[in-house]
Amino acid sequence: MGEPQRSENAEAAKSEAAKSEAAKPHAAEARASAEVKASDGAEAPDRAPAATAKGTKPPLHVGMVGYAFMGAAHSQGWRTVGRVFDLPLRPVLAAICGRDETAVRAAADRHGWATAETDWRALIARDDIDLVDICTPGDSHAEIALAALAAGKHVLCEKPLANTVAEAEAMASAAEVASGRGQLAMVGFNYRRVPATALARRMVAEGRLGALRHVRVTYLQDWLVDPDFPLTWRLRREQAGSGALGDLGAHIVDLAQHLAGEPLAGVSALTETFVRHRPLPGGPTSGLSAVTADNAGQVTVDDAALFTARFPSGALASFEATRYATGRKNALRIELNGERGSLAFDLERLNELSYHDRTEPGSYAGFRRILVTEPDHPYLDAWWPPGHGLGYEHTFVHQARDLVRAIAEGTRPVPSFADGLQVQRVLAAVEESAGKNSVYTPIAN
Ligand SMILES: NC(=O)c1ccc[n+]([C@@H]2O[C@H](COP(=O)([O-])OP(=O)(O)OC[C@H]3O[C@@H](n4cnc5c(N)ncnc54)[C@H](O)[C@@H]3O)[C@@H](O)[C@H]2O)c1
């Protein structure tokens, strides 16, 4: 409040950016280079200047809905991004929203938000909110995002974009219309923003792998192995849309398609629910943790989803998403094999990328470990000296960086709501195929 409104913000940001560009030699070349590299997060140096004085940049007021697992992760992103990256706008943690007044006020204090709301409609109605960040379960994504876009806000929405294709279609259409008014919408597939996966994308785009033959992806967790783990919202279809498929599968479908550079054409799938009844939660739940009560309820989502898939180029892909991989905590692994080389990434060793260059002499060739901490690796020019690695939370800082830049520059951020809709169509095809005992099911792209 008392600060410039959104349209003025964009203008002021452009004028700030123009001033600093004019001061730089070879600004046009730098801009051209940044445009070419924009898709992998590698751009001209963007470390925040030492004296980023509060108030010298136009503010971008963020209002976030949901304050538990992703609420904490996104808060970390918004709090940190302007202190690390040199952004044209200054993100302001203006308001956090939940339904329980005491809990949301405590979350506001803990995570650094200026004010708290107990109804997301009230948050969206506020004139001082520029961007609505949705960190709630999937059953509320569509309603909140559509209302926020209708109210003139930019939107960041956690994955999966929605619980159904129909909801995702409505969101993608609304985002398309809103983009004509300068409002931007992005979905939170944060694993694109690990420096090593962004580097992998760059290397595939450079042709280092040649024609792709295989994309092999697994996302393994084990928090449901205990049959007494309670029936939280993630195990209820009406709230989560699907189980391991929409939660973990959405991430790996997006990452596989992003790295391969093309959407999937069709799938053959199996899904299974291993434990069909679980105790009800005995109190508040957060992220993957909860306590149990005595009564039991029915699990209405998949526990695991396995599927094979074709890319239009002819490459084959395999996917496995499960919450029953005993001993595996957050094991997202992806390997790409091409005619000229291979790449492999493991989220549990996220500062590394394995690369095999088949054009090297056979006597010396082999998988080499690239330590992805160099300043010319994506996102890393603003962080620590080489060898001082990053972690999970940094993906949310990078997500905030890319979105703030897109808003200031008026370019469409990726992954867009249209990208989120396309992932939703893959998830729907997986469920359809699994329902028909793995019949190959084309994806309507
Ligand atoms: N990108 C990732 O790595 C990642 C990881 C985990 C979860 N997610 C996604 O983030 C979203 C949230 O998951 P989470 O793990 O943070 O869940 P969570 O259970 O930890 O938190 C959900 C929050 O939403 C709030 N909430 C629920 N309904 C609400 C409503 N109608 N109005 C206001 N607040 C409401 C709850 O009070 C809670 O604060 C989901 O879409 C999930 O798939 C993404």
UniProtKB/TrEMBL annotation:
Record flagged with keyword Oxidoreductase: yes
Signal peptide: none
Compositionally biased tracts (Basic and acidic residues): 1-46
InterPro entries: Gfo/Idh/MocA-like_OxRdtase_N, Gfo/Idh/MocA_oxidrdct_glycsds, GFO_IDH_MocA-like_dom, NAD(P)-bd_dom_sf
Keywords carried by this UniProt record: Oxidoreductase
SUPFAM superfamilies: Glyceraldehyde-3-phosphate dehydrogenase-like, C-terminal domain, NAD(P)-binding Rossmann-fold domains
PANTHER family per record: BCDNA.GH03377
Gene3D superfamilies: Dihydrodipicolinate Reductase, domain 2, NAD(P)-binding Rossmann-like Domain
Keyword Oxidoreductase: yes
Organism placement in taxonomy: Bacteria, Bacillati, Actinomycetota, Actinomycetes, Kitasatosporales
Domain of life: Bacteria
Compositional bias (Low complexity): 47-57
Region (Disordered): 1-57
Domain Gfo/Idh/MocA-like oxidoreductase N-terminal as annotated: residue spans: 61-179
Record's protein name: Gfo/Idh/MocA family oxidoreductase
Native species: Streptomyces macrolidinus
Residue stretches making up the GFO/IDH/MocA-like oxidoreductase domain: 199-343
